Amino acid sequence: MKFAVLDFETTGTQSVGEIIQVGLAIIEEDRSISRVYGSYVKPGTPIPPFITGLTGITDSDVQDAPELDEMMMELVPLLDDVVLVGHNVAFDFHFLQNALDRCGYLPFQGRILDTIDFLKICFPSLTSYQLGAVSTHFGITHDRPHQADSDAEATARVLLKCLEELYSLPLLTIQRLSELFGGEDSDLGWYFDGLLHEREQETFQPEGELTFYRQLALAVGDWAELAPPREENASNPLAALSFNDYMDEVMKRLKAALPHYESREAQEIMIQEVMTALSEDKHLLIEAGTGTGKSLGYLLPAIYQSVKTDQKVMVSTHTINLQDQLRERDIPLLTQVVPFPFKAAIFKGRGHYLCLRKFEHKINKRDFTSPREDTLTAAQMIVWLTQSESGDDEELNLGGRGGDFWETVASDTDSCLGRACPWFRKCYYHRAKHEAGIADVVVTNHSKLFADVKAGHQLLPAYEHLVIDEAHHLEDVAGKHLGMHMKHFTVSHTLSRLYKDSRNGQLPVLRQMLQSGGSEQAAEWSGVIDRLYPDLLTVKETWDQLSDRLFSLLPERSDASAGEAGQLVLRLLPGKRPEAWEELAALENTMNLALSEIIRKGDKMISEMRDQESQSSSDSLATDISGLFKDLAAIREQVRFFMGLNDENVVYWLEANGNYRSKSLQMYAVPVDVSSQLKELFFDKKKSIVLTSATLSVDKSFQFMIDNLGLGEASDQGRLMTALLPSPFRYREQALLVIPRDFPSVKGSIGDARFVNMLVQSLADAAITTRGRMLVLFTSYKMLRQVYDPLKEALASQEIAVLGQGVEGGSRSKLIRRFQDSSASVLLGTSSFWEGVDIPGEALTCLAIVRLPFQPPNHPLAEAKAELLQAQKKNPFMKLSVPQAVIRFKQGFGRLVRTAQDKGIVIVYDTRVIESYYGKYFLYSLPGPKMEHMLTEQMVPRIAEWLEEGGIS
Questions:
Q1: pTM of the model
Q2: Any known ligand binding at 292?
Q3: Cα–Cα distance between 922 and 915 in angstroms, integer?
């Protein structure tokens, strides 16, 4: 098999345009690159500046280049009897066919393969499949990205990496891949068929350390064989070791493992404070700014406490990101430096783990909704099984519809066969649960923490000591979990998984299976299924009607201040139901009755089936269907609770998007004040809870958090410790905060023309001075849109790119990666960029805060909290709005200085920080940067001067 790897550079990025450069790399049968051909091509039109910016190819480069005809005379002979390969090959193939046609050649009839498909299959955990990122990952020198010959050679080397990987996989995996693609007539199917024949000829087959089970090759063995970290009857390694001696030993080993490690005062204080809280059964609020090294600050005492007392310590994070960072970075380091064996396990929500039974069923039955994409996703996962020990979806790069595929194969309680499952001992979820059971420290997340409380502590192992990281999110997460939140999609998705039409859905599949079984009970059960269909249709129709009616209650204006782009919001008050609510309640009643019928008949049928042991093939299907009936029961309860509008202590509201209308409807019912529930569920029950974050204090006081989290009583009884750690950074030298005091102010979420013009001008001037490397934080998406186009235009001539959240498409992490990879760019972000974004070093030099991050006061939850404070004769603005905004402001500021070497500038365009009586709370809460205010026109010279002083230019 001979490959020709092709790459074109063209004057257009889509299918229109002319070829300006061609690159072709030939891979011989012995997998060597025998030739790289490259040539410029003279186009009939000038090259657009955008393409020159991307490729570096100018009009003068191509003015003496061969015409298309001449180039094709050289290229066509090279394409004889080859398999054509490209990175995103459809693009290059389209241009090739056009050029062949224009120059009078026959179209290319050979096989075509895409390296993106190969990368997805062979390396399912790569974070990006973009050629530059992949080349860097594999250490392939790719010296001139977006130049065709360099791209073609890099792509050829990437293909060789993939082939190497395919030859190292066990034969069983190749058989499964060949089978998977064999069902469709595709070039990938042809390739895997050929590969299988070739691999079957070989006498030596690689097997590695894999387990082979039920026709799948797995990296994971039986979890029952996982041993606890220390022998059961061994003496306690900490019996005679004081905490200080343990820390001395750890520090000695840390310095040996990391020669550059310097102990930081803030981290030492934190370690002592956390240890005191854990050992004396107290709660602790501890604010630890960026650079403290807070993960080690709580993990080291947690390990000591847990092993010494033989009691688990639970650690909870807000984001999965931080959980993964602890797993990949901090825990491996601690394993090296703690002077005895210990175990720290990561335990996520169940939906993050693959259910092998569902996956096996799905690929054996080829139960695919979109065949091409689903086949690729299944292939990725078959290879991933030979690499993954955790079965955690965060390891997979699932693009496009991959997320929908995952939902159908994720583990969940309701469809779990437990010990009866043939996969039980290989099960990833039960493995994680077992690991958490034998671990000293378990790292979970806030969502799972509350799910566990709601499930009567069935999900997590028992614990008395808890560390909550990113604790400023605790109140929000508590509200979401202790209340209810439901999407239109959840209901329609559950219904269509049960029954989409007479052939699709779990019930029709079960019915077909029963038909082929042919026993008399099978006929009876088929009848039950037939009688369920009309009820399911009733539920679907009623739900659609109810959603339409609820959507029509939403105000038609879409002032985006309450939520992001086009979000419509309506609060429903228990005492004042909207007109015609009776009609809506009647719809809910119809739906409720139909659901009750479905659940009653369905559950009865499933339990009869379970009693008939012989129904083995439909057993796993029956389990999945029974799980869907449980989902319907939960939906029935939630919709009834919401439509009841009965609880005065709950805020009820609807949200939807103006563009997607009732399909995007969401119902919320959240307790106004969760402090009493947090106190009851956590602070009264647990011996010690440590809450930490970079932002817990407001104006050097913890009172806001104490009130909102229900820590008042613990504080009065002397059970609460608090600590504000000194910053490890020299903020006066590292950060300059400037405020343009003559800047115009804004009312609402939209800037007037004068404001927008001044802002664009000022941002552009600042960006030119800092050469891009700038993050601009907005509080409203509308204002971001107002600034995006004019700023892009203003900076185009300076070759500074502007990236806008929600304008460009792509996820938050993709935008951040693009920002870090490009040498000069400005990133505009709204709410989700205020925190959790880590861009250390030179990539970020300037942070601009356009408006103080006040929550929109008309958001239902904010409104209800304000009413509650007013009833208590307190000032909602000072007690709620200001502290919340200060905490977000501190989070935003924290994006700038991430290491002791970072230097940067913060521009605050909101003059309220110096004009209003509450502005000082914002400025005094920051960790001491140099602050200056001046006229707008003096700002850029001052920034330039300050950067030069610091040696950053």
A1: 0.84
A2: yes
A3: 12
